[in-house]
Amino acid sequence: MGTSLVKALPNFAIAILVLFLTWIIARYTTRIADAVTGRTQLRSSLRALVETLVKLTIWVIGIMVAATIILPGLEPGGLIAGLGIGTLAIGFAFQDIFENFLAGVLIMLRDKMEIGDAIEVEGIVGVVEHITLRETHIRQFTGELTVCPNSMLFKNPVKIMTEQPIRRWEITVGVAYDTDLDHAAEVMRRAIGDMEDFAADQPLDIYVKEFGASSVDFMIRWWSGSMPRDMFAVRDDIFRRIKRALDDADIEIPFPYITHTFKEPIPLAAPRKGGDAS
Questions:
Q1: In angstroms, rounded to a whole number, what is the distance separating the alpha carbons of residues 242 and 259?
Q2: What is the CA radius of gyration of the chain?
Q3: Mapping DSSP to helix (H, G, I), strand (E, B) and coil, where does residue 111 land?
Q4: Most-buried pick from 14, 163, 191, 277 (CB within 10 A)?
Q5: pLDDT (tens digit, 9 = 90+) per residue, 39-67?
Q6: Do 100 and 109 touch, CB atoms closer than 8 A?
Q7: What's the pTM?
Q8: Burial class (CB in 10 A: 0-12, 13-18, 19+), 239
Q9: 181, HSE (Cβ side, Cα atoms, 13 Å)
Q10: How far is residue 96's CA from residue 84's CA, in Å, rounded to a whole number?
């Protein structure tokens, strides 16, 4: 065994050299692939996928060459067959890992979700910062970083809020029941109709929505930037303008009223013994 080990040392040294060369080749090949894909119109997620596949392919070839050097009797066909059986066994043992891996590949191939998009999935709302073959990093709007397994994004519905540059938003404004609704709608339209934040090619809608508990509710719908911060800024301006306009027009924005109705008279006071009942 000692003699065989000594004889195998040169092979081990050559195999280590092959792995070292593989590391160098993979490193520079990845840079070349990054430079080539950077000149194209590929999305950042697809460029990351190409770089990962190039690196993975070079490492698989390098490991196979090193294995055949250490074990001269090992043929490439047998090694590939062994890899197939081993991959099947590992697949059952690490099913979740391979599921996330395949989901990551499919997510990177999607053309509807990119790095920088604002998304919502399973109650997580934020901006996609990074996509790997196993997980996706989502920076929530509150600042926290959430690392999501790719299988969660692949299996569940994902709302991509920034797939289009603009989207429709809406708010509800209530007025008193004794208000002329046509007049109220006209006052609100004049108050916000000239806002520059609205998309010029989309309509501004003001509809009577419902009879509320204390008010007649209007639904105001507009189109503006798709990021949530755009909505907050525009909505703040809308509320301020509408409140000022309704106050100037003496239109009440009511607060909840409670009306008590009694079907039978209630005695004012109980009669006293030996005294005046009044």
A1: 28
A2: 34
A3: coil
A4: 191
A5: 766 666 667 767 777 888 888 888 888 87
A6: no
A7: 0.57
A8: middle
A9: 14
A10: 19
